[in-house]
Amino acid sequence: MWFTIILLQLLPHFTLSVHCPGGCVCDIRGFVKCTGDITAVPPLDPTTTFLLLLNDTQIQLLQERSFQPFHLLLRLRITHSSLDTIHPEAFYDAPQLRSIKLSSNALSVFPPKVFGELSNLEQLQLDDNQIVSISSGLFEGLLNLTELDISNNHISQLDADVFQSLTKLIFLYLAGNRLRNLPGNVFHNLSQLESLVLTSNQLETLESGLFDHLNNLLVLMLQKNQICEIPPHIFWHMPALHTLSMSGNKLQYIPPRSFYYLPNLTKLTLYKNPLISLPDQLVGHMPRLQELYLYETNLVTVPWNLFANMTGLKWLHLHLNDNLTSLPKDLFCCLPKLNKLSIKHNNLLELHPDIFSSLPSLQILLLNENKLRTLPEQIFRHTPRLQTLDLKNNHLRYLTGDVFIHAGALKVLSLSGNRWNCNCSIMGIAEWIQENPTIVNDLEKGVVCREPYKLLDRPLQSLTYEDLQCGPTTYMTSTSVATKVTSSPPTLTITRKDTGTTGTAPVSTSILPFTSTSAVTSLFSPTAEESYIIKKIGYNNQPGFYNTIVLDSGPDIVHNNHYNGWVYLWTVPSTGLFSGFMVALYIVLLVVGVVIIAASLCALYRLHKVMWTLGEVAIEGHYQRITTKSYKF
């Protein structure tokens, strides 16, 4: 039974193998593949061959009417062979052919109108040959052709009417040739064209009006040419265009309004051009643009409104611009959907605190390989979805401890290769690293001190206040003062209550590094006996704290009172009987408080036991009454 079934299944294959020439594989579905020492089209069953693939053969010549017997043949492939000559009538009597692929052979010339009888042909691939020129009439008669690939040949020029009869052409591949210029009307009959690839030629200029009739074009690839200028408005007549690549050319300037009237554009590449500047009016309304590549240029800066019309942008690559030292404050003003921003490998020296304030969807931010010395404390306050941040190989000397406090979604942070200066100001970021060691992904690669010398190569996460010879606070003097933070840190305003004298001093996020020459020192005229400590206990993002600076006497006693946005402090001298008495009183009150709490807990425990006993007695009495009533009944 099973043997019969298997035999019936193998019978068609056995029958085909009888008629299949040596070096070929014949499939029941009409697929024939031949390879090896074949020098001509092999004799095959014309009633079963629909697809013929001749790969890596010794065929050099297609003879006259080579495919006449194959009335059902639809697709022909002769690739990676020695084919260099085609008879003018090689495809005669084969009008049913739909696809011909002659890629990777040695073809250099074609007889005129060799494809003229193939009125049903839809696909013609002649790529990777040695074609030098194409005659005007080569494609005449191909009224139904939709795809033409003549890329990677040696074609240096095209006749103006070479594509004139290809009115149904959708895909045209001309990449990898030696074209220096194109006739202004060479594409005018290709109104159905959707993809035009001119990559890797030697084009130097583009004729005005070259693309005027390509109203349905979706993809235009012009990268890797020698284009040094483009005419104004050359792209204006392609409203359907969604991909435009101009990268790898020699553009130094782009005319104003060059990219207007492209509402459907989704990808624009301008990288690897020696652009010196960009006009203020360059890009029109592009709500669907998602990818923009603008790197490896000579730009010093960019117009503040460059991205204003790109509200749908998701990926922005603005890196590898060696001369780019600054970015306008409002450059990223209108990119609510931006997911990835790469501004790495530039020469940025600083960033405005509000530069990322309009990027609520930002998840990946690459700032590595710049010359940033520090970052504003509030720079990430409007990037709640930021997950990956790369800051390695900058000139960072310190960061405040609160710089990442608004980046609650941060998962990957790179900090290595910076010039960390390990003084008291570094403890803010050092403590943050200690609390978030899993977020910093390059601790082992060198997030270490570069100065002072005694702490060279010391990991930041291992630093302590003792290592830096400064406490968790910094000292100043006073007797009775009132303090308040100004509306725009990092300037602290301190007013002496008894005289009304006001002074200012710089403020760090975690520590206030006042010195003997600071405004505070000159304001209060300190003595050796009057030394107190300043701490910042207020944070803008935590409503449970006041936005204040508090004077604290350290081990001594400080009384403070918050009133109308100010903190008033009265300090007790650090020496003398009164100070000792107050400390002793504080200890006594603390002990009394502990005793009262312990006594209260003991009383609660005993009360709980009494209540539990009374509850058991009540339950037992209730049970006895119920039992007595049941018995009487």
UniProtKB/TrEMBL annotation:
Superkingdom per UniProt: Eukaryota
Annotated organism of origin: Triplophysa rosa (Cave loach)
CC per GO annotation: plasma membrane
InterPro entries hit by this protein: Cys-rich_flank_reg_C, Leu-rich_rpt, Leu-rich_rpt_typical-subtyp, LRR_dom_sf, LRR_TM_domain-containing
Family annotation (PANTHER family): ANTIGEN BSP, PUTATIVE-RELATED (PTHR24369), GLYCOPROTEIN V PLATELET (PTHR24369:SF214)
Transmembrane feature ranges: 583-605
Keyword Transmembrane: yes
Domain LRRCT: 418-471
Protein's UniProt keywords contain Glycoprotein: yes
Protein name (record): Platelet glycoprotein V
Signal peptide start and end residues: 1-17
Swiss-Prot/TrEMBL keywords: Glycoprotein, Leucine-rich repeat, Membrane, Repeat, Signal, Transmembrane, Transmembrane helix
Pfam family, one: LRR_8
